Amino acid sequence: MIPKTLPEQEAHLFVVLSGRRFLQMEGLSNEVPFFIYPYPPEDALAVAAAKKRVKNRLAGAGVTVFEINLYDLSVELLKERSVWERVLAAEPDLDKDDLREMLQGMLDPQLHIAPAIRDRLAQQQFDVFFLTGIGEVFPYIRSHNVLNNLQSVVKGKPMLMFFPGRYEQSDALGSSLVLFGRLKDDQYYRAKNILEQEDVDPDGEHDFRQTAMDLMISYVEAIETSPQRPYDPECQEVHAGLVSRAARVVITALGAPDLWCLEHGAHVGRMLVETRIQLAWMDAQDPSIYRAYQEYGAGKAKLYARNLEDLPQGWYGSNEAIKESVEEGFAEFDRLSHNEWVFDLRTVDTRSTFASGKTLRDMAAEVGLSDLYRNSFQLQSGIVHGEWWSIEAHGMEPCLNVMHRAHLIPSLRLSSGGDKTLARVWLDGLYTIIWMSLSILGTEKESVDAAFSWLEGEAPVAEGDAAEDNAR
Do 316 and 233 belong together in one domain? Predict the structure, then answer.
């Protein structure tokens, strides 16, 4: 079914453009890899914003997009030939037809546009080519002329043209481009409508890792486009840092299915619960807690720098590489301590946590998350810290020699991993943390809706939602 709404089309574009079938140009039957995205011209600004989001998501998926805007290219070419100022000076006095004929000669698709695009493509490494600015260059550059002349230029990579209008396809009448929904261009037969391309994963599996990356990209977009508080940035910085840490761990783990089991992936779930409790607890404190969190971490960095500085002379023996690595580590920890270079003003808090020594268990109890702590964090901590029950369950097995009284010996069988249910739990956990953070920060609803529009009505709720309810 062809997606009709803009959010549906945005989601469709990403799925198709990031798919192996599209990138490898399969199923084209020797046709040119040209695709057209037709959209209502009145939606131009919304489509431009959606295009930017799709490019960001594709970049996160490792798909590089190279875009050429025909209007920008035209201006660039006229400036290169030193006629741009002459065109501007002549425009007020020329009849529209005369101006069109002049520009058509200066920007002939075969003589000027196609060669310029060929040169720029040759200088780039990309996976998909976007051609935009079609409406801005009408009527002196016609879209069908550009497409015809690019058939010998764009080779080996798929091209998507953003077209403000309709792409009408008929077995009886052929195919034609209707610019702005009103002006029918000459017929063009060889491009395919991108909205009609299949967006089904041929392997039948959802890409968990890509969804996690999309969630993080959208989170960053939401907080960056929402009004900022430059004079007290600590709250947003701490939130963004904790969410970023969680997302990076989840994204990495979701890219390695062997980790999708409790034995090898307990650290992921443990970290998600820890982050959730920390966000909820800090929200219940005075706002100064965010600065205290940062100060505590900076003090720890100072401590680690001094530990490296106090290593015995010559401890590294003859290994200069180790010495250089430690010196780099010291310099980095010293930087992260944010200490005054003249006066040593950084305090090192030796208590066990940033919350005046208060444990995560205490924090969970104060915000009503004790059950989550007991049933999830503690259990996964037992695996991470190597409690005997975990070692016995995962790494040991009874000896088969009956004379040995079934004592335990190391197991050589590894946990199989690949537990999709666990992977979904991690993804849901990341979504919950993002939801909580946007709510606590009071992120502008319009920014959240725009950033998460690809979720098709499932975007995190922002303003007006109680963070405590979200955590629960």
Answer: no
